[in-house]
Amino acid sequence: MSLEALGVLNKPGHANFCMRCLYGLPSNMSDADAGRVGVGFYCLGALDIIGLLEGKSKATDRESWREWIWEQQISRIRLKARSSSSSSSAAERRTHKDSSNVDIDGVDDVGDDDSEQRIGGFRPGPFVQTSSEKSNATSIIIDSVDPDPPHLIMTYTALITLAILRDDFSRLDRRGLVALLRATQKEDGSFTAIPGQGEADIRMVYTAFVISSLLDDWRGVNIPRALDFVRKCMTYEGGFGQAPGNEAQGGPTYCALATLALAPPSFSTIAELSPLERRQAIRWLIHQQSEEEGGFSGRTEKNADACYSFWCGAALKILGVDEFVERRRHALFLDSCQFAVSGSGKGKERRLLGGIGKAGDAHPDPYHTYLALASLAIYSPVSGAHAREVEVEGVEETGEVDASWGLPRLDALINATEETARWARAHISGNMELLEIDEDKQDEMR
């Protein structure tokens, strides 16, 4: 048995597709417009991974994108009656301390008095804005539903996108971010997408942990409760569901494992999987890679989908067992997901256009384009220091791998290139020494 030769990774086509989506989504993607900041993250993240952000965009474009994202930063003063439950929660935070900048007692810094909270973060887009005023102007919400609230997932994507655009984060409301985390965490440890309302599941826990890690400030999170919620999401199969009792899926499993890995070292005894749990998680993830297709499925006995190449593949990377992924089969599947039209006539090859879909017969979208490229940045089929080839018994690999498949390293925990992740950690936390430390580590690796 032999594996067919890989084609080329259509970097220029994918870059053009992402640029088109930045200027306007086609009608079949109109539902994605409700999360416009997220669309920007996927498009600009893809351009960052393939190294064509500067080549395909002008400096004025990148500056306007930065300004637009900052216009989505929200500042809210929420006034509400103090309840006994909020008082007890505040008391719990005041008494909970940790040695690694995770003391949750900073009452004066973030406004622990629940009768008045100044909440920051980013909204999905300017959909409810009714005036020409800048959206980051402070407004007051009194015991009512905020019509234009900050969103936890969109806050995460906004921060990473600004790092991709190399913003200096001088306008970041760090205090407001900590308050946002406090306002979205529930009693069971989970987080809602927006303060006081909306769905709550493991995705929001992950974004809360990433934000806290980038800030190097954990005062907004009740860490033991959050970790307890994550642990309860593990299923008998070895994967994780979005909430306790839910079916195991690839996306929640990544979010769970990344959350546990991001937890401060002093909470390692709570966050660390037992040897049995670790084996179960590895087994479940490995079995999501299809023998036939080479891609990953998100649930047991489902078809492969390009997005799960990242969710499952990055989860295996976090567990330190990325050598179990069959890279060549994985790349062949994603090669087939590149949007193309069939050639006409005998011997005519397919013509690559741009963008990546969930499967070979699907139309492309920014979500699958980014996640497919992110997975290839972890599991490159190109031989090199970070791309070990895996020999599969009984399989003969044929043909050279085109250099176009070479991509920069990806930080699997933050979900950004390592260079972007370094920028984010240093500038969001305000600790510029982190850049120098990371550069020293890179020199040692070389």
Which regions have little confidence, pLDDT < 50, spanning 5+ residues? 81-100, 104-109, 384-398
Which shape, going by the Cα principal axes? globular
Query: What structural category arises from helix and sheet content?
Result: mainly alpha
Q: What is the mean pLDDT?
A: 84
β-strand percent reads 5-15%
Main β-sheet: number of strands, strand sense, barrel status?
Answer: 3 strands, mixed
Assign a percent range to the helix content.
40-55%
**Integer tally of domains:** 1
Measured on Cα atoms, how large is the radius of gyration? 22 Å
CATH topology: Glycosyltransferase
Count of separate DSSP helical elements: 18
Distance between the amino and carboxyl termini: 37 Å
Instruction: Tell me which CATH architecture applies here.
Output: Alpha/alpha barrel
Q: Tell me the total number of β-strands.
A: 11
Strand order of the largest sheet: 3-2-4
CATH class: Mainly Alpha
Provide the succession of SSEs: EHHHHEHHEEHHEEHHHHHHHEEHEEEHH
Cofactor: Zn(2+)
Domain Prenyltransferase alpha-alpha toroid: 9-382
Biased composition (Basic and acidic residues): 91-100
Organism: Pyrrhoderma noxium
Quick overview:
The chain has 446 residues and is mostly helical. 45% of the residues lie in helices and 9% in strands.
Walk me through the structure.
By secondary structure, this protein is mainly alpha-helical. It has one domain: Glycosyltransferase (Alpha/alpha barrel). The chain has 18 helices and 11 strands. It has a 3-stranded mixed beta sheet.
